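Troubleshooting: if your tokenizer reports a length mismatch, compare your output against this known-good record of 536 residues.
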Amino acid sequence: MSFIDARHIEAKTVDADVCIVGAGAAGIAIATELLGQSCRVTLLESGDLKFRHRPQSLYQGEQIGLPNFSTARSRFRTFGGSTTRWGGQCRPLDALDFQPRPGIPHSGWPFGAAHLEPYYRHAQAVCQLGPFEYQPSAWRSSDGGALPLDGAQLDTKIFQFSWPMDLGKVYHSALARSDNVSVYLNANVIEIESDESAQNVTSLVVATFNSKRIRFTASAYVLACGGIENARLLLASNRIARQGLGNQHDLVGRFFMDHAYFLVGHFEPATASYDQSYYVIEDYGRVGREQKINAAFALSERIRRDERLNGTAIYFVRRPAYKTSPEYLSRGGMSFIHLVDVLRNHDLPDGNLGRHLRNIAVGAREVAVSLGRQLIEIARPRPRLALRAVLETTPNPESRVTLGIRRDFFGMPRVRVNWQINARDMRGLARLLEVMRQEFERCHIGRLVEYLSMGNNGWPISMTGGKHHMGTTRMHDDPQQGVVDSDCRVQGVSNLYVAGSSVFPTGGYANPTLTIVALALRLAEHLKRRLRMTGE
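Known-good structure output:
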């Protein structure tokens, strides 16, 4: 059992009761929940224990929608998945996020927040968080005070930080000691095979870079390889179902969502006491270890409901002043930051190298001004409280993942991601800034210095995707409105399930990992019941 390198096995077929694809947050959560059970479990990971560029290159694809997105740099093929480079920021979705919301088409989950709460509590421990406590009053004494704002207008939302953050490292030992769970590394799933009716999965075809082909069979299969790759695998498994497995209503890959992040200015506090509060992230390098929580501003539920607004949150991040300047947040400045980040982390570029170089050339003055300010601040640091906003992007059927004509090393079609955001979604951010501005002035707390440089596409230049890929296999009990049902089983397929944020009908504004793990634990419970019923 334990960890096996798929490149070095001689077997042509591997049998189990449950086969999970992807060893990120969802896959690891399910596998660890099945530890010690009577069932045999295989957990398939395309990457290795260490990050390697060759499997990572399989993620390269075409981006044809909003430019602030990368298919190759927004997820990671390694044991632990994207938790290996995760900030650890967690909170449950709001109760409102689960409800059908007037003015937001396609909103509503098959169940409410109360149903998921027991799984959230369990996920809290899996993610190595503190107590399951998200009421602001529970944290004020230990992490600074709340600002004196009108709660009827602005809510305070608590986020917690996981430590340690890499779930691959956290659960490696437990999985290595397991008698019933086997982890296969360097195992690239390239096809889901089914019977002639396309209603039952019969095996998964795994390929390795040293030309091995292995079939993994099981009674139940779980796709847990991310919001893009889950859709890609279903669409590419089209030998029997020509439109792709589970895609009889052309829904697989649609409703692709990601959180949009913006830097919208900075806050100048009226007094030193307002500079220190639990709304401030002091240093991302210390979160989890030293800073356990942060608070964010959000519109009250009443305003969101009455004005039919999407969710948005804003919090303060202490940054060097030059990182809050319009020049830094210009088109050339953002492209320069991207290329420096690629070089620093030895990452793959996002496929838009030419565009980034043109932006830097055209915006050479802004880049030079920003670099000059950076040099000055090395000698005389001048930190500011930057305003970082996260925007809920609402479901849009035209925002989608499809298959392109290019193919990867194994012959699988690479993806084309067309990320589209509904124009009305900016209303949530604009209204939140308006209420914050009014409240800060009324309470004499300080002032917001706002600047949102807009690109030609109508969206702020500073916008980046949160790397939170959601919605492409959305959950709904009606097969004509969702790819998976409320048990996360693919509609029309008896033994295939999907885990992860691809099943989210809506994404709220909260980081998705805690909800991903909660849903994975819920699915693990369902799989246990299924195995008991079938006697396996």
